[in-house]
Each structure stands twice: as C-alpha cells, then as structure tokens.
Amino acid sequence: METEVADPIPKAGPSKPKKAKKNYTIRDVLKELYRPLIDDAIPYKSSDAEYLGSYQKAVTTVWNNMSEEDADVVEAILEQWNKDGAPSPVQLK
Q1: CA-based nearest residue to 41, from 64, 25, 57
Q2: I need a surface site. Which of 10, 56, 74, 86 has the fewest CB within 10 A?
C-alpha cells in the first residue's frame, strides 16, 4: 500500500505580499513628534523605575495642554498617517 505525500510547495497563483496595516492614534503621533514635551512632563529620570508608570499620564498631559491649532495639526498628521502610512522611521518601530 502506497502512502500519498502532500506536495510541500502549494500550487497557488502569484500572491501579493501581505501588507501590514496599522491604525495610528493621536497618542502615536504625540509620542513620535512631541517626545521632548512628554519627557518634560515626567518628573522622573528615564532611568528611574517610576518613569514608565508616568509616561502615559505625561502623553495625556501634553495632549490636554496643547493649543487648538497644534491639536488640529496633530489630527491632520494622524489622518495622513492612517491614509498613506507613517514615515518609514515610525513604521520601523
């Protein structure tokens, strides 16, 4: 009795590479473009254990203290990133 072995190479048509799609958020844009302001809003050094626990609150603080004009710019950048993708250095993170 002969055992049939499946072909290890599937016979499919040409496939497109899978495109990784990320939906960016306001926080992503803030973390990328406003890092110095976020760091200034954290009362700890980056080497302190409390730094990480304070990071998200600092991002929120930067967003809440932002002028309406700056917030509009961030939202426009967010829209652009979600439409066309973020710049390569951001995508590599």
Answers
A1: 57
A2: 10
Q: Is 9 helix (H, G, I), strand (E, B) or coil?
A: coil
Q: Is 29 exposed, middle or buried (0-12, 13-18, 19+ CB in 10 A)?
A: buried
CA distance 22 to 86: 9
Domain ranges of the chain: 26-91
Nearest to 33 by CA among 53, 50, 81: 81
The model's pTM is 0.69
Contact 76, 84 (CB under 8 A): no
